[in-house]
Amino acid sequence: MFSKAESAQIRKEFWTSFGKSFPRKWLLYNTKIKGFSLKFNADRKQASVSIDIEHPDEIANELLYDQLVALKTILTSEFIPEIIYDNEFVLDSGKVIHRIYVKHEKKFSIHNKNTWRDCYEFFVENMSKLELFFYEYEDIINQAI
């Protein structure tokens, strides 16, 4: 097991290494839609890329999620077939959000450097697809609110 400090250092090294290995400006929080972001997620057991919807206005939050549900056929048929829609995803903090995500299916732990390269390649491939989807349907998504 790792101490909190060691674990924090490994996480920092993981993300720094990813940035150096794949230097690119990602869209992530710069969607210009409040409460709508693309994210990389990695922890001790799994990794994923996601669209997180956590608009502070409950109605806008639901409208954004419903708009993405309406686009589900396109997202699954043209971009990422194995994408998962979760209407009530619970974050580690206990907060419940809408998350649309794809999991890294290979064995992964942020604490195991031997699993990092596969994860990085998964990140690049799938985040690129989510970004393409977003850019293609940004106007439609934005119309929800």
UniProtKB/TrEMBL annotation:
Domain DUF4268 residue range list: 10-137
Q: Top-down, what is the taxonomic lineage of the species of origin?
A: Bacteria, Pseudomonadati, Bacteroidota, Flavobacteriia, Flavobacteriales
* Any Pfam family matching the protein: DUF4268
Protein name as annotated: DUF4268 domain-containing protein
Superkingdom of origin: Bacteria
Q: Which InterPro entries match?
A: DUF4268
